[in-house]
UniProtKB/TrEMBL annotation:
UniProt feature coiled coil, ranges: none
Keywords annotated in UniProt: Heme, Iron, Metal-binding, Monooxygenase, Oxidoreductase
BP term (GO), one: cholesterol catabolic process
Family indicated by similarity: Belongs to the cytochrome P450 family.
GO MF annotation list: cholest-4-en-3-one 26-monooxygenase activity; heme binding; iron ion binding; steroid hydroxylase activity
CDD domains per UniProt: CYP164-like (cd20625)
Name this polypeptide is given: Cytochrome P450
InterPro entries: Cyt_P450 (IPR001128), Cyt_P450_B (IPR002397), Cyt_P450_CS (IPR017972), Cyt_P450_sf (IPR036396)
A Pfam family it matches: p450
Length: 419
Protein backbone atom coordinates (compact mmCIF):
# COMPACT_ATOMS: atom_id res chain seq x y z
CA UNK A 1 0.00 0.00 0.00
CA UNK A 2 2.78 2.36 1.05
CA UNK A 3 4.80 1.49 -2.02
CA UNK A 4 1.82 2.16 -4.25
CA UNK A 5 1.38 5.54 -2.55
CA UNK A 6 4.96 6.58 -3.14
CA UNK A 7 4.78 5.44 -6.75
CA UNK A 8 1.64 7.53 -7.24
CA UNK A 9 3.48 10.43 -5.63
CA UNK A 10 6.35 10.06 -8.07
CA UNK A 11 3.89 9.96 -10.99
CA UNK A 12 2.22 13.11 -9.71
CA UNK A 13 5.50 14.97 -9.73
CA UNK A 14 5.80 14.07 -13.38
CA UNK A 15 2.46 15.74 -13.99
CA UNK A 16 0.67 12.58 -15.09
CA UNK A 17 -3.14 13.10 -14.96
CA UNK A 18 -3.97 9.82 -13.18
CA UNK A 19 -1.54 10.53 -10.35
CA UNK A 20 -2.40 14.22 -10.22
CA UNK A 21 -6.04 13.30 -9.71
CA UNK A 22 -5.08 11.79 -6.40
CA UNK A 23 -2.26 14.04 -5.31
CA UNK A 24 -2.74 17.56 -6.67
CA UNK A 25 -3.95 19.82 -3.82
CA UNK A 26 -5.77 22.07 -6.33
CA UNK A 27 -8.05 19.17 -7.22
CA UNK A 28 -9.19 18.85 -3.63
CA UNK A 29 -11.19 22.01 -4.13
CA UNK A 30 -12.49 21.18 -7.59
CA UNK A 31 -11.83 17.71 -9.03
CA UNK A 32 -14.59 17.97 -11.66
CA UNK A 33 -12.64 19.30 -14.69
CA UNK A 34 -10.07 16.53 -14.18
CA UNK A 35 -12.85 13.92 -14.17
CA UNK A 36 -13.95 15.16 -17.59
CA UNK A 37 -10.37 15.13 -18.86
CA UNK A 38 -10.09 11.49 -17.82
CA UNK A 39 -13.51 10.62 -19.26
CA UNK A 40 -12.44 11.95 -22.66
CA UNK A 41 -9.66 9.31 -22.69
CA UNK A 42 -12.11 6.38 -22.48
CA UNK A 43 -13.69 4.11 -19.85
CA UNK A 44 -10.38 3.06 -18.27
CA UNK A 45 -7.07 4.93 -18.35
CA UNK A 46 -3.76 3.58 -17.16
CA UNK A 47 -0.21 4.72 -16.57
CA UNK A 48 2.60 2.26 -15.87
CA UNK A 49 1.55 2.00 -12.21
CA UNK A 50 -2.19 1.99 -11.88
CA UNK A 51 -5.49 2.36 -13.73
CA UNK A 52 -8.27 4.85 -13.12
CA UNK A 53 -11.89 5.31 -14.13
CA UNK A 54 -14.72 7.83 -13.92
CA UNK A 55 -16.98 5.55 -15.95
CA UNK A 56 -20.16 4.54 -14.10
CA UNK A 57 -20.41 1.10 -15.74
CA UNK A 58 -16.74 0.29 -15.09
CA UNK A 59 -16.83 1.46 -11.45
CA UNK A 60 -20.02 -0.50 -10.86
CA UNK A 61 -18.59 -3.64 -12.46
CA UNK A 62 -15.28 -3.52 -10.58
CA UNK A 63 -16.96 -2.86 -7.21
CA UNK A 64 -19.26 -5.85 -7.72
CA UNK A 65 -16.62 -8.19 -9.15
CA UNK A 66 -15.07 -10.92 -7.02
CA UNK A 67 -11.99 -10.70 -9.23
CA UNK A 68 -11.13 -7.46 -7.38
CA UNK A 69 -10.45 -6.95 -3.70
CA UNK A 70 -9.68 -4.09 -1.35
CA UNK A 71 -6.21 -2.67 -0.93
CA UNK A 72 -5.86 -4.23 2.53
CA UNK A 73 -5.82 -7.78 1.31
CA UNK A 74 -5.31 -9.07 4.87
CA UNK A 75 -8.39 -11.18 4.42
CA UNK A 76 -6.19 -13.59 2.52
CA UNK A 77 -3.88 -14.17 5.48
CA UNK A 78 -4.54 -17.03 7.88
CA UNK A 79 -5.17 -15.98 11.47
CA UNK A 80 -1.68 -16.60 12.93
CA UNK A 81 -0.17 -14.42 10.21
CA UNK A 82 -2.68 -11.69 10.88
CA UNK A 83 -1.57 -11.75 14.49
CA UNK A 84 2.01 -11.36 13.35
CA UNK A 85 0.98 -8.41 11.21
CA UNK A 86 -0.65 -6.78 14.24
CA UNK A 87 2.56 -7.32 16.17
CA UNK A 88 4.74 -5.76 13.52
CA UNK A 89 2.44 -2.80 12.96
CA UNK A 90 1.50 -1.25 16.29
CA UNK A 91 -2.27 -1.92 16.37
CA UNK A 92 -2.84 1.30 18.28
CA UNK A 93 -1.86 3.24 15.16
CA UNK A 94 -4.29 1.46 12.84
CA UNK A 95 -6.79 3.81 11.23
CA UNK A 96 -10.47 2.93 10.80
CA UNK A 97 -9.91 1.81 7.21
CA UNK A 98 -6.67 -0.11 7.77
CA UNK A 99 -6.85 -3.91 7.83
CA UNK A 100 -8.38 -5.76 9.56
CA UNK A 101 -11.06 -3.08 9.20
CA UNK A 102 -14.13 -4.50 7.47
CA UNK A 103 -13.61 -1.94 4.73
CA UNK A 104 -10.11 -3.25 4.00
CA UNK A 105 -10.60 -7.01 3.95
CA UNK A 106 -12.16 -9.33 1.39
CA UNK A 107 -14.56 -12.24 1.80
CA UNK A 108 -14.65 -14.63 3.59
CA UNK A 109 -13.24 -12.60 6.50
CA UNK A 110 -15.25 -9.57 5.41
CA UNK A 111 -18.46 -11.59 5.40
CA UNK A 112 -17.88 -12.59 9.01
CA UNK A 113 -17.37 -9.02 10.26
CA UNK A 114 -20.17 -7.58 8.16
CA UNK A 115 -22.70 -10.13 9.45
CA UNK A 116 -22.01 -9.10 13.05
CA UNK A 117 -22.42 -5.40 12.41
CA UNK A 118 -25.28 -5.59 9.90
CA UNK A 119 -27.69 -6.60 12.66
CA UNK A 120 -27.49 -3.07 14.04
CA UNK A 121 -28.37 -1.52 10.66
CA UNK A 122 -31.38 -3.46 9.38
CA UNK A 123 -33.97 -1.30 7.61
CA UNK A 124 -36.37 -1.92 10.51
CA UNK A 125 -33.95 -0.77 13.18
CA UNK A 126 -32.99 2.29 11.17
CA UNK A 127 -36.66 3.09 10.43
CA UNK A 128 -37.35 3.08 14.16
CA UNK A 129 -34.59 5.67 14.62
CA UNK A 130 -36.49 8.33 12.68
CA UNK A 131 -38.07 9.79 15.80
CA UNK A 132 -34.80 9.87 17.70
CA UNK A 133 -33.04 11.61 14.80
CA UNK A 134 -35.80 14.25 14.63
CA UNK A 135 -35.50 14.76 18.38
CA UNK A 136 -31.72 15.25 18.17
CA UNK A 137 -32.18 17.73 15.31
CA UNK A 138 -34.82 19.60 17.31
CA UNK A 139 -32.61 19.76 20.42
CA UNK A 140 -29.67 21.10 18.40
CA UNK A 141 -31.87 23.75 16.82
CA UNK A 142 -33.19 24.72 20.27
CA UNK A 143 -29.61 25.29 21.42
CA UNK A 144 -29.09 27.62 18.45
CA UNK A 145 -32.28 29.57 19.03
CA UNK A 146 -31.64 33.30 19.16
CA UNK A 147 -28.39 33.13 17.17
CA UNK A 148 -28.55 35.07 13.91
CA UNK A 149 -25.35 33.50 12.66
CA UNK A 150 -23.53 30.26 13.37
CA UNK A 151 -21.21 27.76 11.74
CA UNK A 152 -23.52 25.11 10.33
CA UNK A 153 -20.79 22.43 10.33
CA UNK A 154 -19.63 22.94 13.89
CA UNK A 155 -23.01 23.49 15.52
CA UNK A 156 -25.35 21.26 13.50
CA UNK A 157 -24.09 19.10 10.59
CA UNK A 158 -21.35 17.44 12.67
CA UNK A 159 -23.35 17.24 15.91
CA UNK A 160 -26.32 15.32 14.58
CA UNK A 161 -24.46 12.28 13.19
CA UNK A 162 -22.07 12.09 16.13
CA UNK A 163 -24.96 12.05 18.59
CA UNK A 164 -26.82 9.38 16.63
CA UNK A 165 -23.79 7.10 16.21
CA UNK A 166 -22.78 7.62 19.84
CA UNK A 167 -26.26 6.40 20.85
CA UNK A 168 -25.85 3.35 18.62
CA UNK A 169 -22.44 2.52 20.08
CA UNK A 170 -23.26 3.29 23.70
CA UNK A 171 -20.81 6.22 23.93
CA UNK A 172 -21.33 8.40 27.02
CA UNK A 173 -22.38 11.97 26.28
CA UNK A 174 -19.29 13.51 27.85
CA UNK A 175 -16.96 11.68 25.44
CA UNK A 176 -18.65 12.82 22.23
CA UNK A 177 -16.97 16.17 21.67
CA UNK A 178 -13.49 14.73 22.14
CA UNK A 179 -14.23 11.83 19.79
CA UNK A 180 -15.40 14.21 17.11
CA UNK A 181 -12.17 16.22 17.34
CA UNK A 182 -10.03 13.05 17.26
CA UNK A 183 -12.02 11.68 14.31
CA UNK A 184 -11.39 14.86 12.36
CA UNK A 185 -7.66 14.69 13.03
CA UNK A 186 -7.53 11.02 12.02
CA UNK A 187 -9.65 11.47 8.85
CA UNK A 188 -6.65 12.70 6.85
CA UNK A 189 -5.26 9.14 6.90
CA UNK A 190 -7.76 8.34 4.14
CA UNK A 191 -5.77 10.50 1.76
CA UNK A 192 -2.62 9.37 -0.04
CA UNK A 193 0.53 11.43 0.12
CA UNK A 194 0.39 12.71 3.69
CA UNK A 195 3.24 14.86 4.87
CA UNK A 196 5.23 13.47 7.79
CA UNK A 197 3.73 16.13 10.03
CA UNK A 198 0.14 15.32 9.04
CA UNK A 199 0.90 11.65 9.55
CA UNK A 200 2.29 12.16 13.07
CA UNK A 201 -0.67 14.30 14.06
CA UNK A 202 -3.10 11.69 12.79
CA UNK A 203 -1.12 8.96 14.53
CA UNK A 204 -1.35 10.75 17.87
CA UNK A 205 -5.12 11.08 17.40
CA UNK A 206 -5.40 7.39 16.49
CA UNK A 207 -3.51 6.31 19.62
CA UNK A 208 -5.88 8.36 21.71
CA UNK A 209 -8.89 6.89 19.90
CA UNK A 210 -7.66 3.34 20.56
CA UNK A 211 -6.99 4.12 24.22
CA UNK A 212 -10.47 5.56 24.56
CA UNK A 213 -11.98 2.55 22.79
CA UNK A 214 -10.17 0.08 25.08
CA UNK A 215 -11.71 1.81 28.10
CA UNK A 216 -15.10 1.86 26.42
CA UNK A 217 -14.97 -1.88 25.75
CA UNK A 218 -13.97 -2.56 29.37
CA UNK A 219 -16.87 -0.46 30.64
CA UNK A 220 -19.34 -2.31 28.42
CA UNK A 221 -17.89 -5.72 29.26
CA UNK A 222 -18.58 -4.98 32.91
CA UNK A 223 -21.95 -3.38 32.26
CA UNK A 224 -23.34 -4.22 28.79
CA UNK A 225 -26.11 -2.14 27.24
CA UNK A 226 -28.23 -2.78 24.14
CA UNK A 227 -25.73 -0.97 21.88
CA UNK A 228 -23.73 -2.48 19.01
CA UNK A 229 -20.37 -2.56 20.84
CA UNK A 230 -21.90 -4.48 23.76
CA UNK A 231 -23.28 -6.97 21.23
CA UNK A 232 -19.84 -7.40 19.67
CA UNK A 233 -18.11 -7.71 23.04
CA UNK A 234 -20.52 -10.46 24.07
CA UNK A 235 -19.96 -12.61 20.95
CA UNK A 236 -18.83 -16.14 21.74
CA UNK A 237 -17.09 -19.13 20.18
CA UNK A 238 -16.44 -18.98 16.44
CA UNK A 239 -18.00 -15.52 16.21
CA UNK A 240 -15.76 -13.96 18.84
CA UNK A 241 -13.67 -11.00 17.62
CA UNK A 242 -10.11 -10.67 18.88
CA UNK A 243 -9.22 -7.30 20.45
CA UNK A 244 -7.68 -5.88 17.27
CA UNK A 245 -10.68 -6.96 15.18
CA UNK A 246 -13.05 -5.49 17.74
CA UNK A 247 -11.21 -2.16 17.68
CA UNK A 248 -11.17 -2.01 13.89
CA UNK A 249 -14.85 -2.87 13.52
CA UNK A 250 -15.87 -0.43 16.25
CA UNK A 251 -13.68 2.44 15.12
CA UNK A 252 -14.79 2.05 11.51
CA UNK A 253 -18.46 2.28 12.42
CA UNK A 254 -17.74 5.21 14.72
CA UNK A 255 -15.68 7.10 12.13
CA UNK A 256 -17.93 6.21 9.18
CA UNK A 257 -20.88 7.33 11.26
CA UNK A 258 -19.68 10.85 11.83
CA UNK A 259 -17.07 11.66 9.21
CA UNK A 260 -19.29 11.33 6.15
CA UNK A 261 -22.84 12.43 6.94
CA UNK A 262 -21.54 15.80 8.16
CA UNK A 263 -20.26 16.40 4.63
CA UNK A 264 -23.53 15.36 3.07
CA UNK A 265 -25.51 17.84 5.19
CA UNK A 266 -23.03 20.67 4.60
CA UNK A 267 -22.85 20.01 0.85
CA UNK A 268 -26.66 20.04 0.71
CA UNK A 269 -26.93 23.42 2.43
CA UNK A 270 -24.28 24.91 0.13
CA UNK A 271 -26.01 23.56 -3.01
CA UNK A 272 -29.45 24.71 -1.92
CA UNK A 273 -28.02 28.15 -1.23
CA UNK A 274 -26.88 28.27 -4.85
CA UNK A 275 -30.32 27.06 -6.02
CA UNK A 276 -32.87 28.94 -3.89
CA UNK A 277 -35.71 28.10 -6.27
CA UNK A 278 -35.15 24.38 -5.59
CA UNK A 279 -35.10 25.04 -1.85
CA UNK A 280 -38.43 26.83 -2.15
CA UNK A 281 -39.82 23.88 -4.11
CA UNK A 282 -38.70 21.48 -1.34
CA UNK A 283 -40.22 23.70 1.32
CA UNK A 284 -43.54 23.41 -0.53
CA UNK A 285 -43.04 19.70 -1.29
CA UNK A 286 -41.36 18.13 1.75
CA UNK A 287 -41.81 14.62 0.33
CA UNK A 288 -39.08 15.62 -2.11
CA UNK A 289 -36.34 15.70 0.54
CA UNK A 290 -35.42 12.03 0.16
CA UNK A 291 -34.70 12.43 -3.55
CA UNK A 292 -32.95 15.74 -2.93
CA UNK A 293 -30.54 13.95 -0.58
CA UNK A 294 -29.70 11.44 -3.32
CA UNK A 295 -29.13 14.27 -5.78
CA UNK A 296 -26.69 15.91 -3.33
CA UNK A 297 -24.93 12.55 -2.91
CA UNK A 298 -24.64 12.29 -6.69
CA UNK A 299 -23.59 15.87 -7.40
CA UNK A 300 -21.14 16.37 -4.49
CA UNK A 301 -20.25 12.87 -3.33
CA UNK A 302 -18.90 12.92 0.25
CA UNK A 303 -16.59 9.97 -0.60
CA UNK A 304 -14.98 10.84 -3.94
CA UNK A 305 -12.61 7.98 -4.43
CA UNK A 306 -11.91 4.36 -3.64
CA UNK A 307 -9.39 1.75 -4.78
CA UNK A 308 -9.59 -1.89 -5.81
CA UNK A 309 -6.83 -4.40 -6.64
CA UNK A 310 -7.17 -7.29 -9.10
CA UNK A 311 -6.99 -10.57 -7.18
CA UNK A 312 -6.51 -12.68 -10.31
CA UNK A 313 -6.14 -12.12 -14.01
CA UNK A 314 -9.31 -10.55 -15.33
CA UNK A 315 -10.74 -8.23 -17.96
CA UNK A 316 -12.89 -5.11 -17.66
CA UNK A 317 -14.09 -3.02 -20.62
CA UNK A 318 -11.66 -4.86 -22.87
CA UNK A 319 -8.64 -4.18 -20.64
CA UNK A 320 -6.57 -6.96 -19.10
CA UNK A 321 -5.73 -6.74 -15.39
CA UNK A 322 -2.85 -8.75 -13.92
CA UNK A 323 -3.16 -9.82 -10.26
CA UNK A 324 -2.00 -6.99 -8.00
CA UNK A 325 -2.86 -4.24 -10.49
CA UNK A 326 -4.90 -1.45 -8.91
CA UNK A 327 -7.69 0.74 -10.22
CA UNK A 328 -8.69 4.08 -8.77
CA UNK A 329 -12.46 4.39 -8.88
CA UNK A 330 -13.49 8.05 -8.88
CA UNK A 331 -17.02 7.68 -7.53
CA UNK A 332 -17.55 11.43 -7.69
CA UNK A 333 -16.75 11.30 -11.42
CA UNK A 334 -18.83 8.18 -12.10
CA UNK A 335 -21.74 10.08 -10.58
CA UNK A 336 -21.40 12.64 -13.35
CA UNK A 337 -21.29 10.11 -16.20
CA UNK A 338 -23.46 11.47 -19.04
CA UNK A 339 -24.15 7.88 -20.18
CA UNK A 340 -26.28 7.49 -17.03
CA UNK A 341 -27.29 11.00 -15.95
CA UNK A 342 -28.67 13.57 -18.41
CA UNK A 343 -26.93 16.96 -18.05
CA UNK A 344 -24.86 15.53 -15.18
CA UNK A 345 -23.31 18.79 -13.97
CA UNK A 346 -26.76 20.28 -13.32
CA UNK A 347 -28.13 20.03 -9.78
CA UNK A 348 -31.78 19.00 -9.90
CA UNK A 349 -33.56 17.76 -6.77
CA UNK A 350 -36.34 16.30 -8.93
CA UNK A 351 -33.98 14.21 -11.08
CA UNK A 352 -35.77 10.87 -11.50
CA UNK A 353 -32.70 8.62 -11.46
CA UNK A 354 -30.61 10.44 -8.85
CA UNK A 355 -30.43 7.27 -6.74
CA UNK A 356 -28.43 5.48 -9.46
CA UNK A 357 -25.30 7.14 -8.01
CA UNK A 358 -22.38 5.16 -6.59
CA UNK A 359 -21.80 7.51 -3.64
CA UNK A 360 -22.33 4.59 -1.24
CA UNK A 361 -20.20 2.28 -3.41
CA UNK A 362 -21.60 -1.08 -4.59
CA UNK A 363 -21.02 -4.80 -4.13
CA UNK A 364 -19.99 -6.40 -0.85
CA UNK A 365 -18.69 -3.15 0.67
CA UNK A 366 -21.85 -1.17 -0.14
CA UNK A 367 -22.17 1.35 2.68
CA UNK A 368 -23.69 -0.33 5.68
CA UNK A 369 -24.92 3.00 6.98
CA UNK A 370 -26.58 4.14 3.73
CA UNK A 371 -30.16 4.09 5.00
CA UNK A 372 -29.12 5.73 8.27
CA UNK A 373 -27.19 8.45 6.41
CA UNK A 374 -30.15 9.10 4.09
CA UNK A 375 -32.50 9.31 7.05
CA UNK A 376 -30.21 11.63 9.04
CA UNK A 377 -29.67 13.99 6.14
CA UNK A 378 -33.34 14.20 5.13
CA UNK A 379 -34.47 14.82 8.72
CA UNK A 380 -31.61 17.26 9.42
CA UNK A 381 -32.37 19.35 6.34
CA UNK A 382 -36.11 19.34 6.67
CA UNK A 383 -35.94 20.32 10.36
CA UNK A 384 -33.33 23.01 9.67
CA UNK A 385 -35.35 24.76 6.96
CA UNK A 386 -38.62 24.39 8.85
CA UNK A 387 -37.08 26.23 11.79
CA UNK A 388 -35.19 28.74 9.63
CA UNK A 389 -37.01 29.11 6.30
CA UNK A 390 -34.77 31.97 5.20
CA UNK A 391 -31.42 30.38 6.14
CA UNK A 392 -28.61 31.54 3.85
CA UNK A 393 -24.89 30.95 3.62
CA UNK A 394 -23.19 34.08 4.99
CA UNK A 395 -19.51 34.86 5.06
CA UNK A 396 -16.86 32.66 3.56
CA UNK A 397 -17.30 28.86 3.57
CA UNK A 398 -14.12 26.83 3.93
CA UNK A 399 -13.71 23.46 2.28
CA UNK A 400 -12.04 20.57 4.06
CA UNK A 401 -8.53 20.02 2.75
CA UNK A 402 -9.11 16.32 2.11
CA UNK A 403 -9.22 14.55 -1.26
CA UNK A 404 -11.22 11.40 -0.49
CA UNK A 405 -13.78 13.15 1.70
CA UNK A 406 -15.55 16.12 0.10
CA UNK A 407 -17.23 18.60 2.40
CA UNK A 408 -16.89 21.80 4.37
CA UNK A 409 -14.71 22.62 7.32
CA UNK A 410 -16.75 25.75 8.03
CA UNK A 411 -20.06 26.88 6.59
CA UNK A 412 -21.21 30.14 8.19
CA UNK A 413 -24.96 30.69 7.87
CA UNK A 414 -27.35 33.45 8.74
CA UNK A 415 -30.90 32.74 9.87
CA UNK A 416 -32.14 36.30 9.53
CA UNK A 417 -32.90 36.26 5.80
CA UNK A 418 -36.40 36.55 4.43
CA UNK A 419 -37.87 33.62 2.52
C1 LIG B 1 -18.73 1.79 3.56
C2 LIG B 1 -20.00 6.15 1.89
C3 LIG B 1 -22.41 7.06 6.00
C4 LIG B 1 -20.89 2.84 7.78
C5 LIG B 1 -18.89 2.89 2.75
C6 LIG B 1 -18.36 3.00 1.40
C7 LIG B 1 -18.72 4.23 0.94
C8 LIG B 1 -19.46 4.89 1.99
C9 LIG B 1 -18.38 4.85 -0.42
C10 LIG B 1 -17.58 1.90 0.68
C11 LIG B 1 -16.20 2.28 0.24
C12 LIG B 1 -15.62 1.24 -0.67
O1 LIG B 1 -16.36 0.45 -1.31
O2 LIG B 1 -14.38 1.19 -0.80
C13 LIG B 1 -20.75 6.77 2.87
C14 LIG B 1 -21.37 8.06 2.72
C15 LIG B 1 -22.04 8.31 3.88
C16 LIG B 1 -21.85 7.18 4.75
C17 LIG B 1 -21.25 8.94 1.48
C18 LIG B 1 -22.85 9.49 4.30
C19 LIG B 1 -23.25 10.43 3.53
C20 LIG B 1 -22.22 6.00 6.84
C21 LIG B 1 -22.81 5.86 8.15
C22 LIG B 1 -22.35 4.67 8.64
C23 LIG B 1 -21.52 4.06 7.64
C24 LIG B 1 -23.74 6.86 8.80
C25 LIG B 1 -22.60 4.00 9.96
C26 LIG B 1 -23.27 4.41 10.92
C27 LIG B 1 -20.17 2.22 6.80
C28 LIG B 1 -19.52 0.94 6.99
C29 LIG B 1 -18.89 0.64 5.77
C30 LIG B 1 -19.17 1.74 4.86
C31 LIG B 1 -19.51 0.11 8.26
C32 LIG B 1 -18.06 -0.61 5.45
C33 LIG B 1 -18.94 -1.62 4.81
C34 LIG B 1 -18.16 -2.84 4.35
O3 LIG B 1 -16.92 -2.78 4.18
O4 LIG B 1 -18.79 -3.88 4.17
N1 LIG B 1 -19.55 4.04 3.07
N2 LIG B 1 -21.06 6.27 4.10
N3 LIG B 1 -21.46 4.89 6.56
N4 LIG B 1 -19.94 2.68 5.52
FE1 LIG B 1 -20.60 4.41 4.77
Amino acid sequence: HGVQRSLIQRGARKGDLISRMVMDPALRRDPFPAYEELRARGPISANDLISASVDHAVCNEVLRSDAFGTAGGQGELPRPLRWLHHKVIDPDTLGPVDPPSMLAVDPPLHTRYRRQVARAFTARRVGRMGERVAQVAGDLLDELAGLDEFDLVDRYASQLPVTVIADLLGVPEDDRGRLLALGNEAAVTLDPGLSWREFRRAETALRELHTWFRGHVERLRADPGDDLISQLVLLDGEDRLDPVELHQVGLLVLAAGFETTVNLIGNAVALLDEHPEQLRWLQANPDGWANAVDEVLRHQSPVQLTLRIALRETEVAGRRFEPGHGILLHLGGANRDPAVFADPAAFDVTRADADQHLAFSAGVHFCLGASLARLEAAVALRSLYERHPGLRVAGRPERRGTRVLRGFERLPVSTAGAL
